[in-house]
C-alpha cells in the first residue's frame, strides 16, 4: 500500500524559479525522507526530517513537516536545469519491522 | 562511499524462465530491499530483509522470492517470469529503518518476452 502521495504529479518551471512539491501520508511516522531520481537511474537521498522536527534546510532545499496534517513539502529554490528529475517522498509507518514506503513521485522539468 | 551494485543494468528473459537479480552492498548494512518501479505507480516494495536468512514480504511479493545467505548480498528470484513482471527493479540497503537513509543501486530494467 502506498504510504506517501506526492502532489503535483508533474511540474514545469523556468530556471531561477522555485519549485514546491508536497507529500501526504496516512499513518504516524518516525521520519520522512525525500529522494531524487534522474531518468532511468537509481534514487539518491536528499534529506531526512524526523517526526519531531518542523523544518530542515540543505543547500537550496527546504523541507517542512506537519505531523498534525500528515504532510510535508520540499522546496527547491533558484531551480536549475540540472534539477530536472523525479522526486519521491518516503516514510516508515512507525512500526517495528517495516521498510520505507515511497509515493508515486513528482516529475520536475526545469527549462533554461 | 556506500555502494550498492546490481548485477545487470538491462536484462531480457523469456516467459517461464527462472530469473535471478543480484544485489551487493559494501557497507555492512543490516537492511536490504527490493522494489519495482512502473510508470504511474511509483516504487512498490517486493521484499525486504533485516538480517541474514531473514525476509519479510512487502506489498507485492506474488511471483517473487528472495534469498539472503550473506549479509552483503540480497537476491530477487522470479520463479517463472511473466510479461507482467517487465519492469525496473531497484535494490536498496540501509543501516537501520529508523532515522537512516537508503542507498540505491542503479536499477535493472527487466524485459520479459
Task: Describe the protein's architecture and organization.
- Chain A is mainly beta.
- Chain A is 0% helix and 55% strand.
- Chain A contains no helices and eleven strands.
- Chain A has strands at 4-7, 10-14, 19-25, 31-37, 43-50, 55-58, 61-66, 71-76, 85-91, 101-102, 106-111.
- In chain A, the strands form two sheets. In chain A, strands 2, 4, 5, 9, 10 and 11 form a six-stranded mixed sheet that branches.
- With 113 residues, chain B is mainly beta.
- Chain B has strands at residues 4-6, 10-13, 19-21, 23-25, 31-38, 42-49, 56-57, 64-70, 73-78, 87-94, 102-104, 108-112.
- In chain B, the strands form three sheets. In chain B, strands 2, 5, 6, 7, 10, 11 and 12 form a seven-stranded mixed sheet that branches. A three-stranded antiparallel sheet of chain B has the order 3-9-8, with no helix packed on it.
- The radius of gyration of chain B is 13 Å and the shape is globular.
- Chain B starts with a strand and ends with a strand.
- The A-B interface holds A 1-2, 30-31, 33, 35, 40-45, 48, 50, 88, 90, 92, 97-105 and B 4, 31, 33, 35, 40-43, 45, 48, 50, 56, 58-59, 88, 90, 92, 94, 97-107, 109.
Amino acid at each position: 500500500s502506498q504510504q506517501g502521495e506526492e502532489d503535483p504529479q508533474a511540474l514545469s518551471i523556468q530556471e531561477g524559479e522555485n519549485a514546491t512539491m508536497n507529500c501526504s501520508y496516512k499513518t504516524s511516522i518516525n521520519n520522512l525522507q525525500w529522494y531524487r531520481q534522474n531518468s532511468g537511474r537509481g534514487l539518491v537521498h536528499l534529506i531526512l526530517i524526523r517526526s519531531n522536527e518542523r523544518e530542515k534546510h540543505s543547500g537550496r532545499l527546504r523541507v517542512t513537516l506537519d505531523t498534525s496534517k500528515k504532510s510535508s513539502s520540499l522546496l527547491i529554490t533558484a531551480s536549475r536545469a540540472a534539477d530536472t528529475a523525479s522526486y519521491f517522498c518516503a516514510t516508515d509507518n512507525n512500526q517495528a519491522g517495516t521498510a520505507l514506503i515511497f509515493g508515486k513521485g513528482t516529475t520536475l522539468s526545469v527549462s533554461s | 562511499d556506500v555502494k550498492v551494485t546490481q548485477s545487470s543494468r538491462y536484462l531480457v528473459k523469456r516467459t517461464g524462465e527462472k530469473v535471478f537479480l543480484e544485489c551487493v552492498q559494501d557497507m555492512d548494512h543490516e537492511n536490504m530491499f527490493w522494489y519495482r518501479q512502473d510508470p504511474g505507480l511509483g516504487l512498490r516494495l517486493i521484499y525486504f530483509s533485516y538480517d541474514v536468512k531473514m525476509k519479510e514480504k512487502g506489498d507485492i511479493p506474488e511471483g517473487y522470492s528472495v534469498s539472503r545467505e550473506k549479509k552483503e548480498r540480497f537476491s530477487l528470484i522470479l520463479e517463472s517470469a511473466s510479461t507482467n513482471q517487465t519492469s525496473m527493479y531497484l535494490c536498496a540497503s540501509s543501516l537501520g529503518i529508523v532515522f537512516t537513509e537508503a542507498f540505491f543501486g542503479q536499477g535493472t530494467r527487466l524485459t520479459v518476452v
